[in-house]
Design goal:
Order of helices and strands: EHEHEHHEHEHEEHHEHHEEHEHEHEHHH
Strand order of the largest sheet: 3-2-1-4-5-6-7
Helix content: 40-55%
Radius of gyration: 21 Å
Strand content: 15-25%
Mean pLDDT: 92
Shape: elongated
Number of helices: 16
Structural class: alpha/beta
Length: 360
């Protein structure tokens, strides 16, 4: 594969940046020259240089869902972004352009089509976004994360995730992981996270059930995003309730846990299922319902529960989560169901598709 030059376009949220980085790791390992394309507004500004990849920035082109003034500004913004993207491509001279969706992908798709540069599109969510619906019209190299995604030329490959997660042995790492977070070695353990921004509903519902959890002998590791939303009083002798704004070592968090309560963004669903961690998915109640669709394959296989945001209450934690997190037989069955449902090698498969498109 040596010296294939690849331009990876994606950013804004972890949903686009995480699979980009997982794919970049395989490509660069195998000798490709990787450059990334993002905008000044997204997580990529920090995460991509941190991971050691070149990052080129172009102006963002937000695509409004409803007509209005912002819609009228799209053509001029898009022209500026296409021009800036063309300048990047003139410098980088990629053999293939790869888009992961989001604002930054649209100008990349348009320039790829105009210049006749091979294009690969990867869709992270079960429900495709507007950028990738456009990109899929320009190429036959289209990869999806979920089996039933309605996108032209779609090939189901799965969602690329980090190797330390796709290759995680939860049971082998459990003792080390619990010690890392200051948790007891042998208690039932609940992991709680609302994603990078936190989730008020999850924070309030679980922390309000802290006494019930403690009375049941359950310890909690809670990535709160906004720790001020999690008011928990530690009682002497009670099981630990560990609150962190953000957990950098999610591999260890997954290994420490017997169960997770979380949102159902595509990355979270894929990671949790890949490591066989039983889940209660609480889809974000905004957008097009894509988070509920992301969760469906794992829920239908028996690897997770699905609970509406509005129905997530301290009483639900008491009535459903506490009995489940202590039921080792049911957890083992859910774990087996979850880990059989997602591909762990999507990073390798997508990298192979990219090289194939570049060298065809």
């Amino acid at each position: 594969m040596n010296h294939v030059r690849v331009l990876l376009a994606g950013g804004g949220t972890a949903g686009h940046t995480s699979p980009l980085l997982a794919t970049a790791a395989v490509l660069s390992r195998d000798g490709a020259d990787v450059t990334c394309l993002g905008t000044p507004r997204g997580l990529e500004v920090t995460l991509i240089p941190q991971a050691g990849y070149r990052l080129e920035l172009v102006p963002p082109v937000p695509l409004p869902r409803k007509p209005g003034r912002a819609m009228l500004q799209v053509p001029s913004r898009l022209r500026a972004a296409v021009r800036a993207t063309g300048e990047v491509i003139d410098r980088v001279r990629p053999d293939v352009i790869v888009g992961f969706g989001g604002y930054v992908s649209v100008p990349a798709y348009l320039v790829a089509r105009k210049r006749g540069i091979p294009l690969v599109v990867h869709e992270g969510n079960a429900m495709p976004g507007i950028a990738n619906k456009l990109g899929a019209r320009f190429t036959e190299h289209v990869a999806t994360s979920f089996p039933d995604t309605a996108l032209r030329h779609a090939h189901y490959l799965g969602l690329p995730i980090r190797r330390e997660i796709s290759h995680l042995d939860r049971a082998a790492m459990r003792g080390e992981a619990r010690a890392f977070f200051g948790l007891d070695a042998d208690r039932p353990t609940l992991l709680v996270t609302g994603g990078s921004q936190g989730a008020r509903r999850i924070n309030h519902a679980v922390s309000a059930a802290a006494r019930d959890l403690a009375d049941a002998g359950v310890q909690v590791l809670h990535a709160a995003g906004r720790p001020e939303e999690v008011a928990v009083t530690s009682l002497a002798g009670a099981p630990p309730y560990v609150v962190a704004p953000f957990i950098d070592r999610m591999d260890l968090a997954y290994a420490a846990a017997d169960m997770i309560v979380c949102r159902s963004g595509a990355n979270t669903v894929t990671e949790v299922a890949a490591v066989g961690l039983p889940a209660a998915f609480v889809p974000l109640p905004i957008g097009n319902g894509e988070q509920a669709l992301n969760a469906h394959p794992v829920v239908q296989a028996g690897g997770a529960l699905l609970i509406d945001d509005a129905a997530l209450t301290p009483a639900w934690i008491h009535n459903v989560v506490i009995p489940l997190v202590s039921d080792t037989e049911r957890l083992a069955a859910m774990s087996a169901a979850a880990s059989g449902i997602v591909a762990r090698d999507a990073d390798e498969k997508l990298a192979a598709m990219i090289v194939s498109a570049a060298t065809a």
